[in-house]
Write a structure and sequence with these properties.
Blueprint: H1 7-27, H2 41-58, H3 65-69, H4 79-87, H5 96-106, E1 114-116, H6 136-152, E2 153-156, H7 158-162, E3 176-177, H8 188-200, H9 204-221, H10 241-252, H11 255-273, E4 278-282, E5 288-292, H12 306-313, H13 319-335, E6 358-359, H14 361-380, H15 384-405, E7 406-407, E8 412-413, E9 416-417, E10 427-429, H16 445-454, H17 469-480, H18 484-493
Parallel strand pairs: 4-10
Antiparallel strand pairs: 1-2, 2-3, 4-5, 6-9, 7-8
Helix pairs in contact: 1-16, 1-17, 1-18, 2-4, 8-9, 8-10, 9-10, 9-11, 10-11, 10-14, 11-14, 14-15
The protein binds 2-acetamido-2-deoxy-beta-D-glucopyranose (NAG) (2 copies).
Length: about 500
């Protein structure tokens, strides 16, 4: 057992774990190109047909279904002409050459509807950059990572706002930072780490742009979609918008920015409190708690992965079973943990995904934090009654998390599994054996919330989860499973944040 780490180190390590998928996405080879677009069902439907013909023409090897739904129409092409030409391609499948000729005739490259945008607040080595990092190697590496902002910052081409029906890409008002590779567009929860990184890089204006794009999406859709594509508008992602706004406010003190974003936070909160996401559960003492779950508004294959989803569903026989599976797949994508045995009744079988019947530790903690953040901002801008209301809501959710999800034998919070034979209406009765005793990083997310408090506790006298010593030790053991390489990264990154 290594010396017990300090709490904030654990939390940074946890953040790093969450960051890894993003880092690995950044380090993947750059994608061929890009095309994104629109809003119109018609274009998306056409692109899905192109996708399935392409699968027949090119074969399943190295096939990326997302590429096809990202294609914008070529400047001189119409959707009707592209549809007609698709219908006249040779059957049962065109050759590779015929397929490629068709695509380049009627479509522009995927990603070409995003244009380069030099972030004006980028400096090669910003003043006061990572003052605590002394190792020359670590500094050089951090500056390389920092320089990636220049590659990943774009703007949505003006043509997208003018003719949205020619793109699956959604138009956004400000500069965007994309994860990179095949992820050519903005993503919701990835943006949280993008913002954290931009703040480390002192790129405050870009961080505000990234966040205000999400605010714009809430104004338009009532929630932040999974990503800025028409095919992502039927599900959200882990709700970290309030965290982005808080972190930017703590770094800049910009009240105009807070006032601008505030109404969207209220709107997003209503989305997560709405019937789709709400679950009522009665604890052992007869208290009823309202909690939240992931649930996408979708029961078809995900357009960006349709060929994969259909293949997985092929062993299910009834239409109802397929729809239920597609619904769970999309709901799992909403969780940001796509995919993990965490959501499966049988960890070896993807078709047993049951995400919408699970009360997740992380989601409820994120919403608790959202409620605390809203209470804080409301007070800041002089909206005391709203502040009171959200302060009460956060206390209620804190109690709910402690009663429904805490497990004192295991010294951690556990996901709660609802019976799948109901439709999640009415009030569930809490049963001790319905907690999922498997250990996931998400079981420790409430500890992250405490770290968020430490800098704020003087301003926000709100409840804090008390981490049991056993819980911290367990968390450390869990992290050790990830091996030495992460400890090495941790060592250098531990001082960054
Ligand atoms: C999908 O989302 C769009 C935009 O938010 C909405 O208009 C549509 O009704 C949704 N579809 C379903 C099946 O809920
Ligand atoms: C739970 O939500 C329902 C529906 O929104 C509401 O009527 C009820 O008062 C809430 N219960 C608690 C304990 O907050």
């Amino acid at each position: 057992m290594p010396p017990p780490p300090r709490l904030h180190q654990l939390l940074v390590f946890f953040l790093v774990l969450l960051l890894l998928p993003l880092l690995s996405a950044i380090h993947m080879a750059p994608a061929a190109s890009a095309g994104e677009g629109g809003v119109e069902e018609a274009l998306l439907g056409l692109l899905q047909r192109v996708q399935s013909v392409a699968l027949r023409a090119l074969g399943a090897r190295d096939f990326d279904p997302k590429l096809y739904v990202d294609l914008p129409l070529a400047a001189d092409a119409s959707a009707a002409a592209a549809a007609a030409a698709l219908a006249s391609l040779p059957r049962p499948a065109p050759s590779r050459g015929e397929m490629e000729a068709y695509i380049s005739r009627y479509f522009a490259p995927a990603g070409s509807d995003l244009v380069a945008a030099d972030p004006p607040d980028f400096e090669r080595e910003p003043r006061g950059f990572l003052p605590k990092v002394e190792s020359a190697a670590a500094r050089a590496w951090a500056l390389e990572v920092h320089a990636l902002w220049k590659d990943l910052t774009r703007r949505v081409a003006p043509a997208v706002a003018v003719r949205p029906e020619r793109h699956t890409l959604l138009s956004l008002p400000g500069r965007v930072v994309v994860p990179g590779s095949r992820f050519r567009e903005v993503y919701y929860w990835d943006s949280y780490w993008v913002v954290r990184g931009l703040l480390v890089s002192k790129m405050y204006e870009t961080a505000k742009d990234v966040t205000l794009n999400l605010v714009y999406l809430v104004e338009k859709y009532g929630f932040v979609p999974n990503g800025a594509r028409s095919y992502y508008t039927n599900r959200s992602q882990p709700p970290l918008l309030s965290s982005m706004i808080l972190d930017i406010y703590m770094a800049t003190g910009d009240m105009v920015f807070v006032r601008r974003a505030f109404p969207s936070l209220l709107k997003e909160h209503s989305f997560w409190m709405s019937e789709v996401h709400n679950v009522a559960i009665m604890d052992n003492h007869g208290h009823v708690h309202n909690m939240s779950r992931y649930q996408a508004m979708w029961n078809k294959p995900r357009p960006e992965s349709a060929t994969i989803d259909e293949e997985l569903a092929s062993k299910l026989t009834s239409t109802a079973a397929k729809e239920q599976f597609y619904h769970q797949v999309a709901s799992t994508a909403e969780s940001g943990w796509d995919f993990s045995s965490r959501w499966m009744r049988d960890s070896t079988d993807m078709t047993t995904l049951t995400t919408s019947y699970i009360i997740p530790v992380d989601l409820n903690t994120f919403i608790l934090k959202m409620e605390q953040d809203i209470a804080f901002f409301a007070k800041l801008i002089g909206e005391s009654p709203i502040s009171e209301r959200f302060s009460e809501a956060s206390k209620a959710r804190y109690d709910a998390i402690e009663s429904v999800l805490w497990n004192s034998d295991m010294d951690q919070w556990l996901d709660y599994w609802l019976p799948t034979d109901g439709n999640c209406q009415g009030i569930y009765l809490w049963k001790p054996n319905s907690q999922n005793r498997a250990i996931f990083a998400s079981n420790f997310v409430p500890l992250w919330l405490n770290a968020q408090h430490s800098g704020l506790s003087c301003r926000r006298p709100l409840p804090v989860f008390v981490p049991m010593p056993g819980c911290i030790a367990l968390f450390w053991e869990y992290l050790k499973l990830y091996g030495n390489i992460y400890q090495h990264i941790f060592h250098d990154l531990g001082v960054l944040f």
